[in-house]
């Protein structure tokens, strides 16, 4: 059944490339328009209400979010991220969801109103992919229903967690339970009592000769005895309430053995299944943040109260060029993200790892610059709470290290590309061999090439 929405005239589709529009099914077109209308009419006008409501109750989700979550759920704007190969999916492809996620990203907390926020998206996809029937009933279905929230706990303060084989929190697996001891960083703040589940990665078999089989992933209820939060971690000075980022200690924490996901020693298999989608979701939302920053810059360009030397700031050549660079950067980064999403749909998360890494490396770096330029156009006000720009910039900077720092992804991409060097050198040698044959044919003396074959 065709959609009645005209994708060539609706502002919801204004920045979606033609090749993507051609792939959108009617269900996706309807959802993209719904999400656009939701963010424009329900979320952006409520930004200052949200801020006011969390001012005195930092670690409680504000009443307006609870109200909007009920309303969004009733409208079918719920769990849109889960890919369509899961039975629990609402039916969108990764590419189609990308278009929704960008719009959600225009306001940091907008995805939360649709149960499409981090880390929920990655965690729900993990549980849907790897949990058994009983685990799904106990943990997945309540998360999908929005009954409580979850956290993902992987990073540690005492090791270089960018090499995940070094993760060292101890897990002793007995016949009936898992006993946990160690420290963790990140994972949403336990001060918010809606966060009731932590998905924990730890070392259960430290002497295993294969370092990729030493670790286990399991579910830890947040109220488990011995599981303590030391403090909330600020990000560039922001406490990121009401979700936050905790610093944790586990002291003889005991959870039932049946809380192990997939099986002992299979944490890396699980992590790779989770981190691909999680990484790309961050980048999808960041495109929306950058679009919002760009729009704020345009608003500033024609602000009548701000006319240095009697001119709108948008009339200065330097700012005209700045706007052009911002526009082109966002459009280019959108193509990178959409390509990654489409690759995941066509070839799977594992085959799409280069495109995912490309997004993770390029998008936050490029869009940091876009948001920074918007801040620059606002002058001193651009550094204050007068606009959402500083928080947008901080989120973009955070995404550079969320789910792994740039250098780790660059190393992976570079290592994979080096594997192609042998075949490419063989091709170059064949070019030279063929060149020498042509020299004989045409009676020309071959030239020596220094530095190439």
Explain what this protein looks like in three dimensions.
Strands 2-3-7-6 form a 4-stranded antiparallel β-sheet, with no helix packed on it. A 3-stranded mixed β-sheet has the order 1-4-5. It is of the alpha+beta class. It is 47% helix and 11% strand. The protein folds into 4 domains: 11-145, Orthogonal Bundle (Butyryl-Coa Dehydrogenase, subunit A, domain 1); 149-261, Butyryl-CoA Dehydrogenase, subunit A, domain 2, CATH 2.40.110; 275-418, Up-down Bundle (Butyryl-CoA Dehydrogenase, subunit A, domain 3), CATH 1.20.140; 423-453, no CATH class. The model has no long low-confidence stretch (mean pLDDT 93).
Strand element count: 7
Uncertain stretches:
none
Shape: globular
**Helix proportion range:** 40-55%
* Integer count of domains: 4
Kindly report the average pLDDT value. 93
CATH fold description of the largest domain = Butyryl-CoA Dehydrogenase, subunit A, domain 3
What's the main sheet like? 4 strands, antiparallel
Mind telling me the C-alpha Rg?
Answer: 25 Å
Helix count, per DSSP? Answer: 13
* Spatial sequence of strands, sheet with the most strands: 2-3-7-6
What is the second-level CATH architecture of the largest domain? Up-down Bundle
CATH superfamily of the largest domain: Butyryl-CoA Dehydrogenase, subunit A, domain 3
Strand share of the residues? 5-15%
Q: For this structure, what is the CATH class of the largest domain?
A: Mainly Alpha
Order of helices and strands: HHHHHHHEEEEEEEHHHHHH
Category from helices, strands and their pairing: alpha+beta
GO molecular function: acyl-CoA dehydrogenase activity; flavin adenine dinucleotide binding
Cofactor: FAD
Protein name: Acyl-CoA dehydrogenase family member 11
Keywords: FAD, Flavoprotein, Oxidoreductase
């Amino acid at each position: 059944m065709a959609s009645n929405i005209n994708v060539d005239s609706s502002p919801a589709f204004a920045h979606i490339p033609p090749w993507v529009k051609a792939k959108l099914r009617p269900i996706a077109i309807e959802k993209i328009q719904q999400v656009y209308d939701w963010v424009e009419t329900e979320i952006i006008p409520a930004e200052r209400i949200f801020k006011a409501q969390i001012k005195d109750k930092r670690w409680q989700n504000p009443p307006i979010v609870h109200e909007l979550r009920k309303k969004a759920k009733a409208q079918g704007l719920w769990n849109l991220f889960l890919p369509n190969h899961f039975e629990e999916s609402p039916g969108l492809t990764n590419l189609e969801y990308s278009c929704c996620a960008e719009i959600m990203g225009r306001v940091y907390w907008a995805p939360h109103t649709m149960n499409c926020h981090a880390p929920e998206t990655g965690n729900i996809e993990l549980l849907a992919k790897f949990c058994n029937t009983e685990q799904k009933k106990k943990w997945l279905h309540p998360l999908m229903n929005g009954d409580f929230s979850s956290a993902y706990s992987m990073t540690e303060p005492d090791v270089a967690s960018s090499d995940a084989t070094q993760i060292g929190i101890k897990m002793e697996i007995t016949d009936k339970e898992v006993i946990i001891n160690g420290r963790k960083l990140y994972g949403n703040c336990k001060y918010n009592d809606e966060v009731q589940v932590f998905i924990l990665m730890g070392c259960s078999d430290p002497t295993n000769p294969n370092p990729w089989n030493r670790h286990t992933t399991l579910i830890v209820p947040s109220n488990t005895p011995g599981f303590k939060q030391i403090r909330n971690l600020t990000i560039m000075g922001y406490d990121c309430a009401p979700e936050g980022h905790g610093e944790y200690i586990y002291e003889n924490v005991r959870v039932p053995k049946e809380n192990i996901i997939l099986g002992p020693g299979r944490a890396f298999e699980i992590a790779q299944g989770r981190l691909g989608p999680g990484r790309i979701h961050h980048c999808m939302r960041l495109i929306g943040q950058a679009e919002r920053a760009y729009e704020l810059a345009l608003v500033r360009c024609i602000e009548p109260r701000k006319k240095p030397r009697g001119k709108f700031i948008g009339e200065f050549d330097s700012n005209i060029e700045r706007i052009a660079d911002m526009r082109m950067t966002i459009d280019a980064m959108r193509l990178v993200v959409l390509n990654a999403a489409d690759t995941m749909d066509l070839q799977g998360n594992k085959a799409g790892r280069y495109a995912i890494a490309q997004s993770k490396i390029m998008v936050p770096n490029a869009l940091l610059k876009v948001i920074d330029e918007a801040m620059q156009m606002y002058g001193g006000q651009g550094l204050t709470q007068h606009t959402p720009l500083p928080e947008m910039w901080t989120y973009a900077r955070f995404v550079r290290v969320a789910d792994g720092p740039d250098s780790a992804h660059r190393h992976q991409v570079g290592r994979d590309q080096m594997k192609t060097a042998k075949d490419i050198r063989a091709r170059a040698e064949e070019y030279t061999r063929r060149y020498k044959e042509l020299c004989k044919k045409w009676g020309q003396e071959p030239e020596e090439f220094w530095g190439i074959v």
